Amino acid sequence: MRLYNHPTAEEFVLERIFHALSDPVRLEIVRSLSCVTEATCGELDGGRPKSSMSHHFRILREAGLVHTRVAGTVHQNTLRRAELDARFPGLLNAILAQTGR
Amino acid sequence: MRLYNHPTAEEFVLERIFHALSDPVRLEIVRSLSCVTEATCGELDGGRPKSSMSHHFRILREAGLVHTRVAGTVHQNTLRRAELDARFPGLLNAILAQTGR
């Protein structure tokens, strides 16, 4: 069983959050996770190749946006909303409020 | 005299805004410009090499964050705040409200 490292809220870096959100696939994952309690990688991949999705999830985890929990054979992902809100007040809500491109 | 191209507000792309803000130098330029009406590149470069700053200003312009006006021999930069607020309500304020790293 593979375990993932996640930064603590104190280790979050604003620029790293923005880098994670600078890609449409990753922004879409964050949007999707904001609507559910948790979701597997498979539920979030939109049919994209697994190798490319692993890269995107790694960037999201390293930025502190997403927590990945290994549950048997599936990986359950959650948005670290409470910690992000505490560290960067109002930021995630302002981002998720944007609908247009 | 060199003129710069700037995207219209309709051409702004959220992911491009985030890319522009994913670098500490560019984030600092945006913060600095939020406090003044306009500023020259020299006032904003923090002693960094001109070639590297040209790159940063280009990324900021292409994202729609910064407008550069050529005034004689100097380049005056402004934050496109009104257009950004109209296109992405609340986003810039939420970003500028973050102080910690």
Write structural notes for this entry.
The structure is a homodimer of 101-residue chains. By secondary structure, chain A is of the alpha+beta class. In chain A, 48% of the residues lie in helices and 14% in strands. The first copy, chain A, has 6 helices and 3 strands, in the order ααβααββαα. The first copy, chain A, has helices at 14-20, 24-33, 41-44, 50-63, 81-87, 91-96; strands spanning 39-40, 66-71, 74-79. In chain A, strands 1-3-2 form a 3-stranded antiparallel sheet. In chain A, helix 1 packs antiparallel against helix 4 (50-63). Chain A is globular. The termini of chain A are far apart. The model of chain A has no long low-confidence stretch (mean pLDDT 93). At the A-B interface, helix 1 and helix 6 of A face helix 1 and helix 6 of B.
Most extensive interface, residues per chain? A-B, 23 and 23 residues
Total number of helices of chain A: 6
The percent of residues in helical segments of chain A reads: 40-55%
Terminal CA distance of chain A reads 39 Å
Q: Please state the oligomeric state of the protein chains shown.
A: homodimer
Adjacency order of strands in the biggest sheet of chain A: 1-3-2
Main sheet specs of chain A: 3 strands, antiparallel
